[in-house]
Amino acid sequence: MEGTSAPVAMEETTAPPMSKKEKAKLEKLAKKNMMKQMATTQLNADDEEDALAGNYGDVAMENLQSKEKSGRVWTQVGDLGQDHAQQTVLVRGRVHTVRGKGSLGFLVVREAGHTVQCVVQVKENVVSKGMIKYVTKLNKESIVDVEGLVVVPPKPVEGTSQPVELHVTKVFCVSTAAVQLPINLEDCARSEVDFQKGEEEGKKFVRVGQDTRLNNRVIDLRTPANQAIFRIQCQVSALFRQALLDEDFVELHTPKLIAGASEGGSSVFKLEYKGQPACLAQSPQLHKQMAICADFGRVFEIGPVFRAEDSFTHRHLCEFTGLDFEMEIKEHYFEVLDVLEKVFLTIFDGLNEKCAKQLKAINEQYPFEPLQYLRPTLRLTFAEGVAILKEAGHDVDPMADFNTETEKTLGKLVKEKYKTDFYILHRYPSAIRPFYTMPCWDDKRYSNSFDVFIRGEEIISGAQRVHDPELLTKRATECGIDVKTLSTYIDSFRYGAPPHGGAGVGLERVVMLFCALNNIRKTSLFPRDPQRLAP
Amino acid sequence: MEGTSAPVAMEETTAPPMSKKEKAKLEKLAKKNMMKQMATTQLNADDEEDALAGNYGDVAMENLQSKEKSGRVWTQVGDLGQDHAQQTVLVRGRVHTVRGKGSLGFLVVREAGHTVQCVVQVKENVVSKGMIKYVTKLNKESIVDVEGLVVVPPKPVEGTSQPVELHVTKVFCVSTAAVQLPINLEDCARSEVDFQKGEEEGKKFVRVGQDTRLNNRVIDLRTPANQAIFRIQCQVSALFRQALLDEDFVELHTPKLIAGASEGGSSVFKLEYKGQPACLAQSPQLHKQMAICADFGRVFEIGPVFRAEDSFTHRHLCEFTGLDFEMEIKEHYFEVLDVLEKVFLTIFDGLNEKCAKQLKAINEQYPFEPLQYLRPTLRLTFAEGVAILKEAGHDVDPMADFNTETEKTLGKLVKEKYKTDFYILHRYPSAIRPFYTMPCWDDKRYSNSFDVFIRGEEIISGAQRVHDPELLTKRATECGIDVKTLSTYIDSFRYGAPPHGGAGVGLERVVMLFCALNNIRKTSLFPRDPQRLAP
């Protein structure tokens, strides 16, 4: 919302003066509560002679230390609607904007990204000039309790998310924010469209850079888009988990502290563990597979994954949330793809169904096209992917991995041809997959592996694993890995190991790509990259 | 189950010979599949002249490399019941025990802790002597595919979990276990009662120590009790999560890599992060609170917590799974207790309702009394706890923390007096709580804090937090903490902070104490303690 234009709009939409009945009701309410509120608030020095001073003020600390359970009920700002009309409600939220004009004050209160306009108008026995003075002096982002009558304005309020106004009867400040905020929330919440509009009107808006935002993440996270992003992230976890629980998967928690270095490849974070060398798990791969060898059948984990890579891209983090699963395969790695497909269609459908409000909030700041996906999901072999690229005139090595650019190109071509942003590429060349990937039965140059793409970017990697200790030893040797360093891993398969496969997904990437955001730091609550370890 | 007695029991309970119709059906089925199976299996050298060799053998590697999707359906051993009677089913499981006797073989197949007896009997055109020979030579713990007719025996089979038998028509080995297993599953699964019975009968059973089990965790985890423990753990997570989602909580993932050392107290794991000193989060405390200051209202996290403490007790781990939540408080920390109570009653009720099978499996190896709990949950102040102890003649300092022994004693006294294993102790002395705990409004020697106990052991710790930066600074100083080291933490509250509180629970402790297990290593999949970093 645009804060600067809001007060004007609000003034225009203020409801007509109260009826006598309303007034009497409010007065009665005010008197009833006055003694109580006098006892529970501090008076401002200015207001010593205000007989209505009990209706506003800073709440004394002792009243925030669990002094009483009054039975009062708070309504959430985001729930305020026309069905509350003519009810007196109590809300707790932040001072989003505030503006005074003679005997009228305008306070926009925000809670979890939702905003409501609160009108403070002098009224006998209820609202004094002192209250308006008090309200207009409130620091932005302070936490306030506001009691007021819900009024449906004749014209909808512009610039707030809720369609109603509160006609304030009481205001108490629960926590005062510093006068000077390091970043301004309105600046953080402004969309590209608003920037352009402002420019056309000759306004100069401040642009808050990604680093400044992250340095002040506690404020930055309060924008409607950020409130929405992490509620969507929560839904992705919840849908992923429930889809797998419904398929008889068991949720595990595998250790993140690992002796020595976990499965080769990208670099690891090393530490000393009680005198032993240790590292942080780069993936739950080994332990997931051990759980399969330990008869859990189908397992999954949602947990942190640590990568000490020096990747300064829009899509890499040093710590991210892995959504991993592993399952017994009876015959074919397509069984893994079937589960994967079910899980992701559940996630996409679920987000569209349950998170309409949140998707709208994100769209308002970062406009994006809704994700297109087919049912069933498109499955192409790697070779088919190569053919599509070649057909379009791109010269690609059919046995080498695609780079990010090629993946994006393929994504566009697939979108044109099949009308989907979500698809599976499988049967990758063995040479570009880890040694523990099961080779294809008919051509060992290829493997029973897959990647999954959203909007041309990889979000999932998975495969059937080699469950046979002899073949595993052979594959490691062929890949030039010292088998001695793998003995614990290989030994896990010596006591009977069912064929199995699985996949790993990055939670932050799913959210980023579903919403077509341009940086993974936007979907990590407190991101960690090679240059950022705080807050 | 007792493996040694099983085969005898099985023999007695073998169903009567097949009817002609059954036989014809099986023969038809066998012929139909023979050519296919011949192609998909390796023949054993011994069996070259066996015309029925296509009905058994080791599966060739290429047939485990996703060669085909045949459409065959596998039934789970744990699902096999009388409603499958006279149906031909296919199961995949482990060779639990095997025994041959002339033209009869007995194979107990185990899947996820469930066992079924499979009878291999020579039958014209279906089962040859070669098959019996093959079956009896299978190594324990190998993975096998068994096809057979489900038969309800006249007397229930002893020593297996499923009430039916399979009359085998085909057996294929999918993965061969090493001849020599480091630990024997039957030894791992034996209960104290069985040990005593064995002793009385003059049998000498092997006792597998905790360390040996953990060194060979992949095998140890296959026991029915362990299969049950981690399915219960999964349910605890699921119930905790759902109860909080239902209460409008948002699931978060906070970083585990922290700059410097996280909140004081017990020692931390240190590491180098791209040239900066870093450590592993000892709790999500700081980031949970930041999320509250970032307007998420109510948040929770399920994730690893790292403690480098040198605690060699039955209840401490260096890495465990924390169930943490934090929420805005409108007036009183009892709001936190109300949520806590709801969540834990949901968990207890849910486990009793959904995990009857699993609780039975645990009970068979580790007998325990079901948890007794009241509705609503008993809440006592710390002072009331002290009084109960004093009344019973225990001399305790009313302002000092209870030690583990005293907690257990109080647990017993409370159980006697109130008939509950689960209760809350609140209003602890401020001196024994962290500096960020909110003091009571009426007596700052006490704090708005609580611990929760199951069977006399603490599982949860929580409190209302100080949300005011001035009071927080004052409290830190009073506690002798250098405020400079806390600047990031304290600054989070300077831009408006709602009153809030929360709690942290150890997942492994909940499972351990619900099931009255004696060691937390039993409820951690791959435990980490000061002396164990593997597997």
From TrEMBL, chains A, B:
Q: Does the keyword Ribosomal protein apply?
A: no
What residue stretches are annotated with the Aminoacyl-transfer RNA synthetases class-II family profile domain?
230-527
Q: Where is this region: Disordered?
A: 1-23
**Kind of enzyme, top EC level?**
ligase
Any one Gene Ontology molecular-function term assigned to this protein's record: ATP binding
> What reaction gets catalysed by this protein?
tRNA(Asp) + L-aspartate + ATP = L-aspartyl-tRNA(Asp) + AMP + diphosphate
Q: Which E.C. number(s) belong to this protein? A: 6.1.1.12
Q: Which UniProt keywords apply?
A: Aminoacyl-tRNA synthetase, ATP-binding, Cytoplasm, Ligase, Nucleotide-binding, Protein biosynthesis
According to its UniProt entry, the protein's GO biological process terms are:
aspartyl-tRNA aminoacylation
Q: Which SUPFAM superfamilies match?
A: Class II aaRS and biotin synthetases, Nucleic acid-binding proteins
The UniProt transmembrane annotation reads none
Entry keyword annotation includes Signal: no
Quick one: where is this thing mainly located?
cytoplasm
- Gene Ontology CC annotation, any one: cytosol
InterPro entries noted in UniProt: Aa-tRNA-synt_II, aa-tRNA-synth_II, aa-tRNA-synth_II/BPL/LPL, Asp-tRNA_synthase_2, Asp/Asn-tRNA-synth_IIb, NA-bd_OB-fold, NA-bd_OB_tRNA
Q: Which Pfam families match?
A: tRNA-synt_2, tRNA_anti-codon
Question: Sorted alphabetically, which PROSITE patterns does this protein's record hold?
Answer: AA_TRNA_LIGASE_II
Localization (cell): Cytoplasm
Checking NCBIfam families in the record gives: aspS_nondisc, PRK05159.1
Give the record's family classification: Belongs to the class-II aminoacyl-tRNA synthetase family. Type 2 subfamily.
Q: Can you say what this protein is called?
A: aspartate--tRNA ligase
Q: What species is given as this protein's source?
A: Ceratodon purpureus
